[in-house]
Amino acid sequence: MNFKTTLIILAVFIILGGAYFFFGRPSPDTEQSKTDQQKIREVYTLSQDKIRQISLSFKDEAYQPLTLAKNADGIWQLTTPFTADADPPKINEMLQDLLEKRVKQTLEAEDLAQYGLQPPNIRIELWTEGETPAKTFLIGDRTVNYSVYTKEQSESHIFLIESSALDDFTKSPSDLRDRDVFNFSPAEVTTLRLQVGDQPEIRCKRQADSNPDVTGDAEGWEMIHPVKAKADARVVEDIVSALSSLRVVVFEADGEYDPADYGLNQPKITIALQTVTDDKIQELQIGSDAGTPGRIFVTRSDHRAVYTVNREIYTKLNRTVFDFRDKRVIDFQRTATHQFVIRQGESKIECQKGVDGEWEITAPVVLKADEEAVDDLLFGVDALRAVAFIDDQSKSLRPYGLDSPSIEVSFMAPDTELAVLLVGKMTGDNIYVKAQNAEPVFLVKKTLLDLVGLGIAGLRSKQILDFDGDDAARIALKHGDVNLICQKQGANWRLTHPVQEQAKNRAIRNIIEQVNRLTVEAFLPVSPSITTAGFDMPEIRLAVTLKDRTEHLLEIGKLVDDKHYYGRLQNAPDTVFLLQKETVENLKQTVDDLRATPDAN
Whole-prediction pTM value? Predict the structure, then answer.
């Protein structure tokens, strides 16, 4: 027989086989049938909420037989091939997929093997009550019209339903297991225990009447071991939230296994928690890294199973006692504070908020305060966090310089206890501090001194003059060889020296506006000498005289650096400040800049 003849015979066999498949076995289109279109739950009087157990078995030996049953609390659990928590939504979805399918056609059939029903591809047993299944459904082969042959075991006829039933019920244990490692509400957690390696065990508990879902914040946790202190509630809540959302990536082992294979004989981390609604402690152990990058092995102590989860949970839990402690140094009501006092050596600065909400320095002199500087101070102290905990119950404050603080800041708010921050010695880049009404001594970054050690120079408003520009009556400006005087006559300005002629109103108003809005870069806490600052031979002298003959005289001295000049006012010669170079250069006007042109006003 030659090769060509062999191919012809093979083609004939394929055609005959296909003909049998499509035409040899009975078809729903050729046999006597009746169309029903009722749903399976209606045909067989099955209520989904009455089903308490499901068993699945498969012709394909690659799939394990499964049994799912509701426990005493009505929660679905996997009981075969091992015991594990099931995923209730997936179970309910699977049941719904079956019970809501419509019976397309019913057929009388004797040879079930022709339809893939003996043995069936899938056998589904449903228990409602009693020791035997209420109904058993057999799922056979697919048909040519997107259906699948189905039979209820006790009946003689078969029927057709959507072919998706094969996919709906071809499940492995992993497909139906609950992938939540924990099952609790974060708001219900009352205690937490964490053991990281050989470090001391950390124990925290939620304070009474504290519920973040109700209060809207994360307050209310305290550490009770290894020290008794307020806990950083955001750290605790972050951990609790991470555990509540922890999901299984891979179910690695069930039943008997060697913990050493997963690094669980000596866990890296053990964490346990308890909720207000459950006396049982839920504990998680973290073992070694899994073979897949970014994954790690874990187990629940009350479950005989090993899971692979994302490794970020290790980072979340790898915390120290320092991490858990509340690092806030002083507790005061920043937004409610209406007065604060800074004592530094023999000096005392008092600041108070007025009824208009504006801050003012009230002692040792009365000055308008710099709102931004005050806000920075209040916010900075409120946000002050420890970089180290030094002593929780110090017998002596002298080693820290806190027996006689270098700076003492008191904050007052209505109906609250006085809050006082004590600032002690510096050590390296840090400084010792404590709250007056609390025991712990902390180390904080020395940048705190930039906030509380500003003095009047740092707290006063940077706007040095504030008058009504329309009240200006005379301007005298001198710089270099320029010496000019302008006088207001009615609504217009006139140059009176070194020439007598009309001035450019817009240019004069611009000078007045610059002076009246003049903002210093910084006040100097220690004034340099007159010659050092250049006030013996000023770069600029600018005098503005008002209608009431009040005179504001600004003196600008030497250039300090490439960006700033020294400056002072005649009525406060000991208060020296820095002005931006650009601002000073803009004041150097000449006669030609100020004289009127024909179209000027």
Answer: 0.72
